[in-house]
């Protein structure tokens, strides 16, 4: 697929995906959603890509779903659009590689929902987060009412979804929505640095760690612990386990081959 509204770049093992509609503050049109879905299919299956960063061009990460596209939706079209979002969210969460959101500027509505699908969110100091759908007479439709309480608890999720208030990066970090805050202009480089750090880890254990947190989170604790024990023991079938432990004992840097 040729991309028109996103930019897809690779830097060694890293994919950098930029939502690129700066004049509309990177609003998520159906075309943006389709191109992002295609990009994450590629990221999941291309063996040369080991991690991804998603960001926005200009003064926003993403200021929400495209309101001009949604204005005339019938209920059925709205459902279809929400399902497109859910499908993309699942692709990012189930992507076998780490995905970091590097948030600059506005991160609202569908933008905040997109960021929450990533493994964690890095934000610049001036970033603004919110779920302003209530001001448009709708509710979040791309996972916001469900992923937000899982990240920040019910009280904050309700406050954000029921008032439409925007909060800054520091407050978003204090409630657990954002993982780290960086000075203006530094967030993308910081996200790339962390992504590259993860590229040097064993791919089997990296994938397993993501999968365990993702899948275990919604399970009862005992079932989640059983799952962890299963995955923990399969790590011991991988060459990366032998390499990682030998390297530690031989006091050298591990050279993981991804097996
Ligand atoms: N959709 C379409 N266009 C937008 C959007 C948007 N979400 N946000 C900004 N724009 C456009 C503006 O219309 C404007 O265009 P133009 O220059 O042609 O008039 C341009 O971007 C710049 O915006 P502003 O002039 O408004 O810039 P300000 O700095 O004054 O304000 C704000 C910035 C505060 C971010 C403001 O633009 C704003 O409030 N935007 C809307 C935020 C919003 O309500 N987001 C939620 C949308 S609903 C949603 O996300 C539902 C998710 C469901 C997803 C389903 C699956 C994908």
UniProtKB/TrEMBL annotation:
Origin: domain of life: Bacteria
Parts of the chain that traverse the membrane: none
UniProt record, GO biological process: fatty acid beta-oxidation
Record flagged with keyword Lyase: yes
PROSITE patterns: ENOYL_COA_HYDRATASE
GO terms, molecular function: hydro-lyase activity
One Pfam family matching this protein: ECH_1
E.C. code: 4.2.1.55
Keyword terms, alphabetized: Lyase
Top EC class, one word: lyase
SUPFAM superfamilies: ClpP/crotonase (SSF52096)
Presence of the UniProt keyword Lyase in the record: yes
Gene3D superfamilies named in the record: 2-enoyl-CoA Hydratase, Chain A, domain 1, Lyase 2-enoyl-coa Hydratase, Chain A, domain 2
Family according to the record: Belongs to the enoyl-CoA hydratase/isomerase family.
UniProt name for this protein: Enoyl-CoA hydratase/isomerase
Organism of derivation: Desulfarculus baarsii (strain ATCC 33931 / DSM 2075 / LMG 7858 / VKM B-1802 / 2st14)
